[in-house]
Specification:
Chain A is of the alpha+beta class and 106 residues long. Helix content of chain A is 64%, strand content 13%. The structure holds a DNA duplex (30 and 30 nucleotides).
Chain lengths: 106, 106
DNA sequence: ACTCAATTTCGAAAAATATGGAAATAGTGT
DNA sequence: ACACTATTTCCATATTTTTCGAAATTGAGT
């Protein structure tokens, strides 16, 4: 993963509303959730929600699929895994770096 | 970890300059790096660097320690671990969720 | 074609962020 | 106290982000 892409995904998640939004989609699981249902849970205007959703889709963290008039949104797990992988690799927080981490924690 | 804190850390890392900066500090390891040394590697004005560094320190991703006139900066591994842990827990990307992840990858 | 519901785009204002030059500060040695 | 270096704060500006009402669009059913 390139640094630029990681940064854009981190920035996308670095907004409380979007992080909450992403969390909601994760919890919805493989079935996903319609934009309207998400709106009901977040209670923000549809235009605002649409902008935030677009940001998550553009950065590859969320996918969308039409079902009749509703748009189903799903958390894109591989996308998140790649991001976590990048952080772990770059930032030394995985098992391979456990000694350093342990030391830092001590 | 609270959602708000996670969001602020993600936002802090979600800027290419700051992510690069954080990467440099991670690679510097436990010895850390003086602000001036970081500046040499990034080639940005000191005031700009100082602003970005402050953001990382404020969000708990970097620590600083004075050594004479220089300020040593270090990546705060536990902080990053907590963040990755939050993402993994909230976002279903860890081993416990491997089935879902595998399905998504297929 | 018409209508209804779901969602996005347009347009515009307020707020936050990013950037950096210049001045101020902090810390050490003399 | 002074000089020197390292770093931050002050200040201002350009850019980006956030927000959302209103209008436009999309898709399905009639």
């Amino acid at each position: 993963m390139k640094l630029e892409k990681a940064a854009s995904q981190l920035e996308a998640l670095g907004n409380p509303t979007r992080l909450q939004l992403y969390r909601i989609l994760v919890r919805a699981g493989d079935d996903g959730l319609a934009v309207g249902s998400v709106q009901g849970k977040l209670d923000i205007p549809s235009s605002t929600l649409s902008h935030h959703l677009k940001r998550l889709v553009d950065t590859g963290l969320v996918t969308q699929e039409r079902q009749a008039t509703t748009l189903i949104c799903r958390a894109n797990y591989p996308g998140m895994n790649a991001l976590i992988g990048y952080l772990a690799d770059e930032c030394c927080a995985d098992a391979a770096c456990a000694p350093a981490v342990g030391k830092a924690l001590a």
